[in-house]
Amino acid sequence: MRAGEYLATHKLFKVYENFIEEVDATDNGIPICEGKPRYQVTTTLSCRVANLRPAWNDAKQDFDAGFWRAMALVTEEFQDRVRFYAHVWWPARALVTAAIEQRFQVHPSGKIILFEGGTCPFKTHVHELEEEQGLEGQILFAVFQVQYKYLHNHVTGELL
Questions:
Q1: pTM for the full model?
Q2: Greatest CA separation found in the chain?
Q3: Nearest partner of 140 among 151, 124, 129, 126, judged by Cα
Q4: For residue 137, how far is the Cα from the chain centroid?
Q5: Which residues contact 158 (CB under 8 A, 6 or more apart)?
Q6: How far apart, in whole angstroms, are the C-alpha atoms of residue 72 and residue 79?
Q7: pLDDT at 157 over 60
Q8: Among 7, 26, 88, 129, which residue has the least CB neighbours within 10 Å?
Q9: 55-82 b/e with 16+ CB inside 10 Å = b?
Q10: How far apart, in Å, are the Cα atoms of 77 and each of 14, 20, 70, 100, 113?
Q11: What pLDDT digit, counting tens, does each position of 79-108 carry?
């Protein structure tokens, strides 16, 4: 696969995985977890769209107006996700790649990566690059230089 194809496929998959899959699963009644959820989430995109329907006791039952508002809401949300993965998430991969390549300069163990330019979405990239390079579980911490201080984060955990 050429670099451009890889890039396009990867970004499309992230949009599917982090936008379309959620909407599709919700629409098809697939629960987010097994068993009883610990709390209710009522602010998802699907919930917000459902709230645009007329209330049962509205004098004017204008479903078309709600439909067009829902289309605008979903369009904006979808475009935001595409922009995020194209212009924020994907460019961070180059920073993560460089941090992984330079990790032994940060600490002899190679378990710490450093981002001198501040924070970025890094966890998914770290896990993917570890897998691609056969480094699974070797990188444990990410350190970010933000102005005159350093912040740290565990590499394991929820992915973006």
A1: 0.78
A2: 71
A3: 126
A4: 21
A5: 123
A6: 11
A7: no
A8: 88
A9: eeeeeeeeeeebeeebeeebeeeeeebe
A10: 14, 11, 10, 32, 32
A11: 999 999 999 999 999 999 999 999 999 999
In order of 13, 64, 106, 125, 132, the CA distances from 95 in angstroms are 21, 46, 15, 10, 16
* 40 three-class SS: coil
Residue 39: both structure tokens together: 């709390």
- The letter for the amino acid at 88 is V
Phi/psi at 50 (nearest 5 deg)? -60, -35
Question: DSSP letters of 109-127?
Answer: TS-EEEETT-----HHHHH
Please report which confidence band the pLDDT of residue 66 belongs to, taking 50, 70 and 90 as the band edges.
very high
**Between residues 104 and 5, the one the model is more confident about:** 104
